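Quick one: structure for this chain?
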Amino acid sequence: MNYRLFGTSGLRVSELCLGTMTFGLEWGWGADKDESRKIFDTYADAGGNFVDTANRYTEGTSERWLGEFVKSDRHHFVVATKYTLRDQTGDPNRAGNHRKNMMRSVEESLRRLDTDFIDLFWVHAWDGMTPVDEVLRGLDDLVRSGKVHYIGISDTPAWVVSQANTMAELRGWTSFAGLQIEYSLLQRAPERDLLPMAKHFGMAVTPWGAIGGGALTGKYLKGEAGRVVEASARRSARANAIAAVVVEQAEKLGVPPVQLAINWTRQKYAGITAIPIVGARTAAQLQDSLGCLSFEIPEASMQALHAASAIELGFPHEFLASDNIRELIFGGQYQNIIR
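Got it. Here's what it folds into:
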């Protein structure tokens, strides 16, 4: 495992981030404590130091177990957790991005993690109600207090993140160093605005869903499981067609499809630091995923995967990239301008 700088910060994190949504049985599909410990140890033994959780994961069990696992060497691990999602149904102030919920949530996460500080604190999702400056000022206060070291933002429109980081720079507040998004061969919408924005601000990107909920491993192509059984981007004719190409290219390269799908998110978008979040229900599954670190996808396979999963970027991207508009904007000299 090598390490990457987290965005424009000096924080060193491993090439893959361990997702711990599976730590706990409360949601009916996770791992028990013994298996969760094996998953954690498998990751740590491979050199991993970057672990991602959230206040909501398995009703708090994920944070509690993770706190136990890192306690003997707390300063070695980069622990990331999140706030926004509800801790209690029926109370509008125990959820959302506002300062009251932020401060309550961070204190409860610190207790569950049994730690004095959180290395990376994520806004989990944008609520569309809280003013941007309220969120930023609260997060800056947490950084200045020492309870949080770095901040990131997840599942939020690009224009909001752009507004936030510009405001933070102008006001001397802590800015978002990382962006967490769904990104995979099945979900390439971030290429429209989110990824160009992250590149502009020098933000690290931690894609979740890199294997499309398992669809890109090819498991839904086998037998009855290959049928479209629900209206989902992961269980559709398009998803099956993309998964078939992933399986085909993986066979050509002699690697498991899961490794190819993860590496695609690491290699696809030039100019950003992409650190995929990998999760597992067993240590064996995680060991399989970690194998992606042993190779790079050759250009021919990248082109095949690109062609199979291509999306329309839409307006204004395709409009501005058209030959006619470029001729008008650049006087017929677009290709001759060194950028």
